[in-house]
Each structure stands twice: as C-alpha cells, then as structure tokens.
Specification:
The protein is α/β, with parallel strands linked by helices. The chain folds into two domains: 186 residues, 3-Layer(aba) Sandwich (Rossmann fold), CATH 3.40.50; 213 residues, Rossmann fold (3-Layer(aba) Sandwich). The strands form two sheets. The chain has an eight-stranded mixed sheet with strand order 3-4-2-1-5-6-7-8, sandwiched between helices. Strands 11-12-10-9-13-14-15 form a seven-stranded parallel sheet, with helices on both faces. The longest helix is centred in the N-terminal third of the chain and has 26 residues. The radius of gyration is 23 Å and the shape is elongated. The C terminus is likely disordered.
C-alpha cells in the first residue's frame, strides 16, 4: 500500500556531496550545510546516508545518532595522496566518485530499501555531484527502480555552472536552489528551480551571554564597532566596508572593524587599501583557546582601525562578536543566500545585508538592506542609529524573531513538502497528506510586523527561546555607555 506522506517509517534519505562534516572535508559553507541537513534529518528520525570525500584517517563507514545517520567516506584511497583537504586532487576524486557510486548506491541502499517497501530520496549538492546524480538516475531507470526514487539536485551558488549538462540534469530530476535570487539567475538559463532556503541550527536561538559581549566590547576601546566575516572575495565588498570605516573615522568617530577573512589573495588588496586610506591595521593571532583567550587576543591588537583576525572563530564566539558589535556587515554584491546575516540576526546583531539572495532581510524592519556599493550608504545607516538608538533595539529584536523561522527544522519541513509533491507526481505517494500541527500560531502578517505583545503570546518550538529573554537592550545600552 502506498503511503500518503513522507515519514521516517516509510522513507530513507541519501545525500551526495564532496564536502562533509570532517575537518578534512569542510572547506566552506557547503560542508556546514551538509552537516546540518544530515544531522537534522537523523534527529527527525529518518535513516540517512551521507556520501562525501572524507578524511583518509577515519573509518570508511561510521554510524551516528543511534544508527540513523551513516557516514560513507568515499575516495579515501585517493585522499591519502592529497592530505590538504577535500579539493586537493579534486579531478581525480570526482572521476572515482562518478564511476563507483551509482552501482554501489543502487545495490546497497536503494534496492534493499525498496524491497522493504520504502521510498528513497536522493539529494545531490553542487556542480560536482551533477554527473553522478545523472548516472545514478540512469542506473536506477535501467534496473526498473527510478519511479520509486525521488531525486533533487541543489545549487547553492553559480560556481562551475559551465561544467554542468543542464539539459540532461533537468530532464533526469528536480533542480532546486536556496533563494529567489538564485532562481531568477537560473531562469535566464532556461531553468525553473524550486526554492528551498538554507537554515541555521536551533541552538543559535538560545540566550547569548551578554556579560561576555559587554566584556568584549569594553576590551576593544572603540566608540563604534563593526564586524565582517567572509571570504576575501570581491563579491563580498570588503573594500566598501573599509571605505565606510575610513569615512566614519574622518567624521571623528573612533571606529573599529573586526575583520575575519580567509586565505584568498584578495585580502592583501583589501588591507593595502585600508592602509592607503590612513587606517591602522593590526593582526590578532591565537593558536587555540577559550572565549576569554579570544577576547584577550583582540584586546591585544587594540587600539586599531581594522583588526585582521588570523585565528579560527567558533560559532559561539562569533555570536558574542555579532552581539557586541554596532553592525555586522554582510554587504555582499552577489550572495546566493547569506547565512552570516541570518546567524547575526539570531545572535541579536544588527545586520547590514546586500540585496541579492537574502530573502529573510526586510529593510528597516529586521535589517538594513544595502542597495548600492557606495560606502556612504553604510555610513548613513550607522549615523541614523546613533541618532535614534531605540531603532537599533527594535531591529535587534525583530532579527531574533525572524531567525526563529529559518531553523534547519523549518528548512527540512519545507524540503519534505516539495519532495512529497514530486513523489505524488511519480505515483510513489498517494492519498491525502498528513498535516502537522504548526509549531506556533500562524498569522497573515510576517512576524516582524506583528505587535510585540502578540508575538509574546505565540508558543515557541521546543528548544527555542523567546527573543525577549535575550536582553538585547542590555548590550546595546552598555555599548553606548562605553562609547
């Protein structure tokens, strides 16, 4: 008997990605996405298989979450020759990935699951998996299994779109992406992908340590603190941020930019530009440590106009930094989704986003949305908040409320709804879908526009904390006292 809805009892998931949860495999946002997606599915009860280019020094197969999540570290024999991460020796790994995975997945996962009466969902991520997903679809078709498998392939950005056989991919499966901006970008290629937004871990909604944020703010000795966390890439508009700091300094405001970039060469250009504008640039270094060590490392680099942070910042301390800052500059000119802006909102920060893939950002409601590359746009909003500090409090609270709607649990529920629709079109599901009770009272208005008292009456999902408990006002008021 065919089921009417996708449930842990009747569906198994398979995820294909080059990046994954190992340190060897996590080169950027894709690895974080895959880790969160697979973990959320497992926590919701789904048996999930994740195939990725794993560390050569860890077991080839590993189970987690009481056996619900199975990690398959692929191409380990090749990775032993390339110890510097997932993308070293990429072409050799891709060849092995494409050649060896289709029949393994068919014989060892898909066929046994179907024999047990289950539906199988296969998700592929990014351009590197487009070829193997097509081959897998063809292999399943020749074996008479394709109609019992739902396949989605997802684009997180436009990297290497020229290497994808779009006609073949779009024919074989459903194409998805992470924002309306990406959907519109792909429209111009003759594609019409489904939009399934990214998410953030629910843990980010917990109460932030305001005392630690206050200590960090005091240690920096600046009147105005901005921060930016992104790759050193022209699309991230680092130079716009640097020029805004120079303008604010020229207005007599003691301004500090906390800058955490990557390993890209563009960083040298950005920091040269900062020095040429008369800004004092210092480095903050640290091998490892606790939160107090991070604060001491930043304090040791002050006073400065720009602190180039040269050490890894765990997400918990990033939240502290976002909270302590007067603005988080997520001002990209091309951003498929913009996870940093959403993380900053969850932390009670004031986010300055670009105007591309950040579907969650509403101008002057929960963020400032920058429409140009002109640094004076940042300066204007900064001065606006200095004149009207209560607006900063309101935006911080609205951002927290927005973030509640973009957890990974919400993203997976969205994904499952679209998978169910595709499964019905394939006749793999029948009947009326099972409706889940909403986790909070729904309104026709977006949460940012609902009166605060009405929001206070809305029950939260289990494990989430009301933004009112986070005392966002405390850190802002104390920050102004420091200024």
């Amino acid at each position: 008997m065919r089921q009417s809805s996708i449930t842990p009892e009747n569906t198994d998931f398979v995820i294909l990605s080059l990046e994954g949860p190992d340190r060897y495999s996590m080169a950027g946002g894709l690895g974080v996405r895959i880790d969160n997606l697979s973990t959320t599915l497992a926590n919701m009860g789904f048996h999930t298989h994740l195939f990725f280019i794993g560390s050569p020094d860890l077991p080839g197969e590993e189970t987690r979450y009481r056996g619900r999540l199975t990690l398959h570290r692929w191409c380990q024999w090749i990775s032993r020759y390339y110890p510097n991460g997932v993308y070293e020796g990429e072409e050799a790994k891709l060849y092995d990935f494409n050649e060896s995975l289709p029949y393994y997945i068919k014989d060892n996962i898909v066929k046994p699951s179907i024999d047990r009466g289950k539906l199988v969902v296969i998700l592929g991520e990014e351009w590197q998996t487009s070829e193997v997903m097509c081959r897998l679809s063809e292999t399943l078709h020749y074996s008479g299994l394709r109609d019992k498998v739902v396949m989605f392939w997802n684009a997180n950005n436009t990297f290497s779109f020229d290497r994808i056989n779009w006609a073949r991919l779009n024919y074989a499966m459903t194409v998805t992406t992470v924002s309306r901006y990406m959907k519109h970008t792909m429209w111009r290629m003759g594609l019409n992908p489904l939009v399934i937004p990214n998410g953030i871990p629910k843990d980010l909604l917990r109460k932030i340590d305001d005392k630690r944020a206050f200590v960090l703010r005091q240690s920096l000795g600046a009147d105005l603190v901005l921060c930016k966390v992104a790759r050193w890439d022209p699309d991230k508009r680092w130079n716009m941020a640097i020029e805004a700091v120079a303008r604010l300094k020229g207005m007599g405001i003691n301004t500090l930019l906390l800058a955490r970039g990557g390993m890209e060469q563009h960083g040298q250009e950005v920091l040269y530009n900062a020095r040429s504008l008369g800004l004092k640039v210092k480095e903050a270094s640290l091998k490892a440590g606790a939160p107090k060590d991070y604060i001491e490392a930043l304090h040791g680099a002050a006073p400065a106009d720009v602190i180039d942070i040269k050490f890894h910042l765990p997400l918990g301390f990033l939240q502290t930094m976002y909270r302590a800052s007067d603005g988080v500059l997520a001002n990209s000119g091309h951003e498929p989704f913009g996870i940093v802006g959403l993380e900053a909102m969850a932390s009670g920060g004031i986010t300055y986003t670009g105007s591309t893939g950040e579907d969650y950002a509403i101008p002057f409601v929960n963020a400032f949305v920058l429409e140009t590359a002109n640094p004076m746009e940042i300066v204007g909003y900064v001065m606006y908040l200095r004149d009207y500090p209560q607006e900063g409090l309101r935006i911080r609270e609205a951002g927290r409320r927005t973030a509640r709607h973009f957890t990974w649990e919400a993203a997976v529920r969205n994904l499952i709804g679209k998978l169910e629709n595709q499964a019905r079109m394939q006749d793999a599901l029948r009947g009326k879908p099972r409706m889940e009770e909403p986790q909070f009272t729904l309104s026709k208005l977006p949460p940012e526009l609902i009166p605060s008292k009405a929001l206070d009456d809305m029950p939260l999902a289990q494990g989430e904390l009301d933004s009112g408990e986070s005392s966002t006002g405390d850190i802002v008021q104390t920050s102004q006292a420091v200024a």
